[in-house]
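Dear colleagues,

For the upcoming journal club I promised to circulate an example of a predicted protein-ligand complex. I picked one with zinc ion because it came up in last month's discussion. The inputs are reproduced below in full, followed by the predicted structure.
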Amino acid sequence: MNTVVNILQIDVEDWYCDLDPVEWRKHEPRVETATKKVLSILRETENQATFFVLGHVAEKFPGLIAKIDSEGHEVASHGYSHRRVSDQTPGEFEEDVKKSIAILEGITGKKVKGYRAPQFTVMKETLWALDILKKQKMEYDSSIFPVKTPLYGIPDAPLFPYVINSQENGYGHGLTEVPLSVYKLPILGKNIPVAGGFYFRFFPYFFLSYALRKLNRKGNIAVCYMHPWELDPGKPRVEGLKWYHYYRLSAMEEKFRKLTRDFRFISTREWIKNERG
Ligand SMILES: [Zn+2]
């Protein structure tokens, strides 16, 4: 166990939330059981996390959100409808975020301070979203992945948490941005994500723990994330979800247990508070 304290983030959505919302009601909700599994592992390993909760899930399972809060974790926003930011107008985005904040604050009675965009879609063309988050009194955003993928990412974005200075990029002045961890490949100099989700299932644990230890040895934190449905290998196979929604789900629980035993994690808000007061 090393001493650097890292950030853990859980994106609480149901297994079908990457499908078109008109499909959602056809499917059996499984998020409650899967999220309780995450909570029990965090309790056993004495770690804390930020749960970015989708408004749709909070509306259906308010008791689950109250439980997350009562176990000392941070409840933050993953928006309401799981639409990619890049598929929304600024007006639609603001309504979506506002709706999710109202639901979450109505359950916990606490101010929501952070936001995670569906599929990390705060990108160069959607940086305007940062101004809307500021307007909604958020303190931080954690949606920028410093990588290049076909779906998301800003490859030249800073690799570690920073306070946004609007003179540099024009948007979100004063908001703290918490990027997801990447590992810079030696020789190629390319950033590859090691933070969680699919990448966490794809790479062997020894490589992930090596990459995270390397970050920690240099005094840098790791920012890791996962979805409760990744601990649910029995989730239904449906058309519309891609192979990467199912890839090596059965190995995930053991990996997540190892990660939470080998590294120390706290919530995003707690980390920012420790750093900046
Ligand atoms: Zn999501």
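Two points we might discuss: The two ends are 26 Å apart (CA to CA). The longest strand covers residues 5-12.

See you all on Thursday,
B. R.
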